């Protein structure tokens, strides 16, 4: 039976502190942190008048303009699973592939497991997405209503027009929407978010859906952070996802059920020993400029292929420096943070120069070096794939340091052009979780 009371879940965004590029290969690991910025999904049934039959799932994202997607669903032939189709609602609504693919995957999984035991159908339901403001850099109005008027802003734009800050909105969205669908439609005996088994199911399903929606298989670190929060991550073998036909194609449903519960996943996610010292915060600065992760990844991998010996030497050494930083952070050795990060940055710059990819470009080196001079800042990196669009800082977690960093970034932006802005988000340990529905007063009727 679907849940008759509304339920809410949230999943965190990510900051990729160490191990970018290396993590694409299972030989190496990444040090990834979850963030206090979350994507929340509230699930509730749609009540219909007596005698009225509705088979519709509505997903909406009320912080944005033209962001309501209505879907019909049917059983695809030849065990193709549940196929969803966006219903036209008059206006010119963009499709949302991440939402659509997530629905196909989660509904097919639900139908193929629990619903197989009974002649169940999907009752109409609504899933409302609410994202913490730091995911987007647009100016916004904070005139919301309810208990929490400033937590979720209204953005004066469609999602397509939103400027993302790179916190992994699609991974957090796919994870929390999948968790909301499983929680809403399945009894607790079949899916419980609070158990290791529940998290495993969610992780596998969200990874598969996210890869399908993106049209590529990345390392999956962002889904791991969304499910488990801060962790040391070793990726799954890309071959894990080879067995799965496109959603709706013949054989999709049994292949998906087998994949999600199967033993082929060789992901290795460790939470123990991943933390920052007490009194220290991992913070992000948005730098207003975008980079092209896909072509950067392609170029770095080409360099690696053409220079197997040199690149291996560099990656092996970088891996051991990354692991050392993880140990220093979890053991709270404050004095060692700065030199350890400096050593990592040296090798990141070497990788950038050798592959001719701006991983830590000169403008970011200047910015990070100048930030290090701000009292209370230990050091910082260009997170993930690097480029021009963000820096992550390890700094003291107090108001005075925050103020100094904000003053610094304001001055830096003025003197150097562009926009550097300290976001409110901080590194946080916890992954996906259930939320109290009261958090969303004023947003759901
Ligand atoms: N609040 C939201 N409501 C509905 N869909 C969203 C929302 N936020 C993100 N999405 C979906 O995720 C897509 C953005 O995903 P994309 O992978 O481009 O960005 P990202 O995950 O934030 O980036 P990065 O991996 O660089 O951090 C949007 O086009 C939309 O489909
Ligand atoms: C380069 C890479 O290792 C990290 C990309 O991270 P981000 O999208 O820059 O946060 C790619 C991946 O892990 O899928």
What tags apply to this protein structure?
alpha+beta, 13 strands, Ribosomal Protein S5, domain 2, 10 helices, Alpha-Beta Plaits, binds adenosine-5'-triphosphate, 13-stranded mixed beta sheet, 2 domains, binds (3R)-3-hydroxy-3-methyl-5-(phosphonooxy)pentanoic acid, 445 residues
Topology:
Elements: E1 7-18, E2 30-45, E3 57-60, E4 68-75, E5 82-87, H1 97-112, E6 125-131, H2 169-185, H3 196-214, H4 221-228, E7 231-234, H5 252-261, E8 268-270, E9 280-287, H6 293-306, H7 308-330, H8 334-355, H9 362-372, E10 377-381, E11 390-396, H10 399-416, E12 420-428, E13 433-435
Parallel strand pairs: 3-6
Antiparallel strand pairs: 1-2, 1-13, 2-6, 2-7, 2-12, 3-4, 4-5, 7-8, 9-11, 9-12, 10-11
Bound molecules: adenosine-5'-triphosphate and (3R)-3-hydroxy-3-methyl-5-(phosphonooxy)pentanoic acid (PMV).
Residues 16, 20-21, 23-24, 218-219, 221, 293, 297, 384-385 line the site of (3R)-3-hydroxy-3-methyl-5-(phosphonooxy)pentanoic acid.
Brief summary:
By secondary structure, the protein is an alpha+beta fold. Helices cover 36% and strands 21% of the residues.
């Amino acid at each position: 039976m679907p849940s008759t009371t509304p339920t809410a879940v949230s999943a965190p965004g990510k900051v990729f502190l160490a191990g970018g590029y290396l993590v694409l290969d299972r030989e190496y690991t990444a040090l990834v942190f979850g963030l206090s910025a979350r994507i929340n999904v509230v699930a509730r049934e749609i009540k219909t008048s007596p005698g009225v039959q509705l088979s519709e799932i509505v997903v909406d994202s009320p912080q944005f303009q033209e962001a309501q997607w209505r879907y019909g669903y049917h059983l695809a032939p030849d065990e193709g699973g549940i196929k969803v189709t966006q219903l036209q609602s008059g206006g010119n609504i963009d499709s949302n592939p991440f939402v659509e693919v997530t629905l196909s995957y989660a509904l097919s999984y639900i139908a193929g497991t629990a619903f197989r035991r009974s002649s169940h159908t999907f009752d109409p339901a609504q899933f409302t997405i609410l994202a913490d403001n730091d995911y987007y850099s647009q100016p916004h109005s904070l005139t919301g209503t309810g208990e929490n008027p400033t937590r979720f802003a209204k953005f004066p734009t469609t999602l397509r027009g939103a400027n993302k800050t790179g916190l992994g909105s699609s991974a957090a969205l796919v994870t929390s929407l999948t968790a909301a669908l499983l929680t809403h439609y399945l009894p607790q005996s079949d899916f419980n978010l609070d158990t290791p088994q529940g998290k495993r199911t969610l992780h596998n399903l969200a990874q598969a859906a996210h890869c399908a929606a993106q049209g590529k298989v990345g390392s999956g670190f962002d889904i791991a952070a969304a499910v488990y929060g801060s962790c040391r991550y070793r990726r799954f073998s890309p071959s894990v996802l080879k067995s799965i036909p496109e959603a709706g194609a013949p054989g999709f449903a049994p292949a998906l059920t087998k994949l999600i519960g199967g033993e082929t996943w060789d992901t290795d996610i460790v939470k123990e020993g991943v933390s920052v010292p007490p009194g220290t915060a991992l913070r992000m600065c948005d730098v207003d400029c975008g980079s092209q992760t896909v072509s950067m990844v392609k170029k770095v991998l080409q360099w690696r292929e053409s220079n197997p010996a040199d690149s291996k030497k560099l990656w092996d050494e970088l891996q051991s420096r990354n692991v050392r930083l993880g140990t220093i952070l979890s053991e709270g050795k404050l004095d060692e943070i700065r030199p350890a990060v400096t050593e990592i940055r040296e090798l990141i710059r070497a990788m950038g120069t050798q592959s001719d990819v701006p991983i830590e470009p000169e403008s970011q080196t200047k910015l990070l070096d100048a930030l290090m001079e701000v009292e209370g800042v230990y050091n910082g990196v260009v997170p993930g794939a690097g480029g021009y669009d963000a820096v992550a800082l390890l700094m003291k977690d107090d108001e005075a340091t925050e103020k100094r960093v904000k003053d610094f970034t304001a001055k830096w932006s003025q003197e150097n052009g562009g926009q550097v802005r300290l976001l409110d988000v901080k590194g946080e340990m916890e992954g996906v979780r259930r939320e109290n529905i009261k958090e969303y007063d004023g947003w759901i009727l």
